[in-house]
Write a structure and sequence with these properties.
This protein is an alpha/beta fold. It contains 15 helices and 13 strands. α11 links the parallel β7 and β8. α10 crosses α15. The termini are far apart. The structure holds zinc ion. The site of zinc ion (ZN) has 9 residues, from α14.
């Protein structure tokens, strides 16, 4: 049986080693190798090479294929001193990776040479525990959780759709949620608007939602806008740098305002709507698909607008549609998956079926088309009597 030293020497003889100055010279290379850090999480958190990817040695074999599908990709593995990375490089060779080297001297030598390194932001222990199920998903992980904590999502309406959307976004750790709603909690809301409760009757919905959300997750800051979205206030509200808008509005004037503003401010909108047993979800992503006006250039005549009548809705339906909206918003923030941009998802609660319709950007769209004809907000308020009506479904 070889001793550890003999085994290490044998492995080092079978792999390629590169010096820290050689690796440093490649750092800003346009064709830089993948720097793979195989140390433990606590070591990584104290500093690592700029642009490096972290996979602890114990997870290397199970994670590397998903991380680096191309076995021809040049990889430089490093650890603290160059031993663990030598064994890691050997394992990668055995898995078929053809262009692997171990950085001799490791991160200790790197720091001794005075080379730059970055210290990652780390989650607090309580956050590591709260978001443990996210940290276990490679597509989210610690970096994704930081993105969520840094994210700002604006919800239009704290009603049927805004309730589940805001609760799931808050639970997921989206750090800042803006909520726009002028209404107060009414007993007819409680059949579906689960962010509110009986004890909140008569309370402004934005404050009721803020209390529920901040009780659920103290990491989340809620910015409450107790006002109805209008052409007068929309630019002020959107100036607060939102990453994603979740539109839960139930009326045409608000939908058109949100649409036009989102195109002009370049913010993606996760759109949802519900009626009786039917729900619709899509994403209007400026530059990556159609906008609402590509589908409906102008509102229907007032007498045909369904939002002018009280629309019935099955209580759970906004729960399903609002949760799908939260899913789209999380994906947009994380930059993962395929969004619903260009696809309108239709849900039928009675049949329990999902259908999908492809929707395309219209080059003649009055707002996002090649020669836009609308360049200022259009107030459709007078076309439908909104007095006494809340903004949210
Ligand atoms: Zn358009």
């Amino acid at each position: 049986m070889p001793t550890y030293r003999e085994l290490l020497a044998q492995v080092k003889a079978e792999i390629e080693e590169v010096s820290t100055p050689d690796v440093h010279a490649r750092l800003d290379d346009g064709d830089a190798p993948l720097f793979l850090d195989v140390r433990e999480t606590e070591e990584w958190q104290e500093g690592h090479l700029p642009g490096a990817v972290h996979v602890p040695r114990g997870n290397l074999e199970s994670r590397i294929e998903a991380l680096v599908p191309d076995r021809g990709r040049e990889i430089v593995v490093y650890c603290a001193g160059g031993s663990r990375s030598a064994f890691a490089a050997k394992s990668l060779q055995e898995l078929g990776y053809e262009n692997v080297a171990s950085m001799a001297g490791g991160f200790s030598d790197w720091k001794r040479n005075g080379y730059e390194f970055v210290t990652p932001r780390v989650l607090e222990p309580a956050q590591r525990s709260r978001y443990a199920r996210h940290l276990l998903i490679p597509e989210v992980g610690e970096a994704g959780q930081q993105k969520l904590l840094d994210a700002r999502v604006l919800l239009i309406g704290a009603g049927g759709l805004g309730s589940p959307a805001s609760l799931y976004l808050a639970a997921a750790g989206v750090g800042t949620l803006g909520i726009v709603d002028e209404d107060v909690v009414d007993d007819s809301n409680l059949q579906r608007q689960i962010v509110h409760s009986t004890e909140r009757l008569g309370e402004p919905k934005v404050l009721s939602a803020k209390r529920t959300i901040e009780a659920l997750n103290p990491d989340v800051h809620v910015e409450a806008y107790q006002e109805r979205l209008t052409s007068e206030n929309i630019d002020r509200i959107l100036a607060d740098r939102w990453d994603v808008i979740v539109d839960g509005a139930d009326n045409f004037p608000t939908r058109y305002l949100v649409n036009d503003a989102s195109v002009w401010h370049g913010v993606p909108v996760v759109h949802g709507s519900i009626y009786r047993f039917e729900g619709q979800v899509t994403v209007f992503h400026p530059g990556a698909g159609p906008c609402y006006r590509c589908l409906f250039p102008a509102p229907p005549p007032p007498e045909l607008a369904p939002s002018c009548a009280e629309g019935g809705v099955l209580g759970v339906l906004p729960g399903i549609v609002g949760s799908l909206q939260a899913n789209e918003a999380l994906k947009l923030v994380l930059g993962i998956g395929d969004s619903l941009a260009g696809r309108l998802l239709l849900f039928d609660a009675l049949a329990t079926t999902f259908d999908e319709v492809t929707v395309k950007r219209d080059p003649s769209c009055p707002v996002c088309g090649d020669a836009p004809t609308i360049s200022e907000y259009v107030d459709y308020v007078e076309f439908c009597n909104l007095a006494g009506r809340g903004v949210a479904q």
